[in-house]
Model the fold of this input.
Amino acid sequence: MKFILPKSKFFPPAELAEPEGVVLFGGRLTPEWLIDAYAHGIFPWPIFDGTDIVVWWSPDPRAIFELDGFHVSRRLERTCRSGKFEVTCNHDFAGVIHACATTADRKHNTWLTPKMIAAYQRLHDLGHAHSVEAWHEGRLVGGTYGVAIGGLFAGESMFHRQRDASKVALVHLVDHLRARGYTLFDIQQLTPHTESLGAVEIPRSEYLARLADALQRRVAFGRELARNDSRG
Done:
């Protein structure tokens, strides 16, 4: 069998995943493991409560946002233009990831365990994970975060405390990724919410081929959001 990506240091090829998408049980949540995973179309998602076992996945099909196919409704466009929310990047990564784990009904019901949070915080400290925050009257009310490698941005989670706050953060993120030259926005699995924003599913083989291309792109996330002037 011919594999699309170079051999991983830690994982079997994504093409050999179990039918439900499992690639590996165990391993470590270190930056080296995480970066190697994302560079091979694999991500961690713990499923066993009360254990330290990490499960690594590469589902087929794979959900993505096509950067040119992201759907912004007229109402959401008006909200973005209104200036109701101030949007920043990397101003409060810890606040975003903790909110993703605890907002609404997620507390005690989330895959973002303390060890997962610590692992992504370490990636952020090393410049590989990034957050986009939405603020209202100085309060963090929405946001999203993910991992960037080459031209890949792997979105992990988002949250909101006010209506549309996470969507506004996502709109700014998509604008930013386009402007910076990213080619692949991975969101792992399709949900009704992301589908309403234009997310689609593609075969894993296509995802891996697009990932191989994205990893060759010399792009960087940067320290500030690239603004879309048409949205104010």
The chain has two domains: 14-60, 63-231.
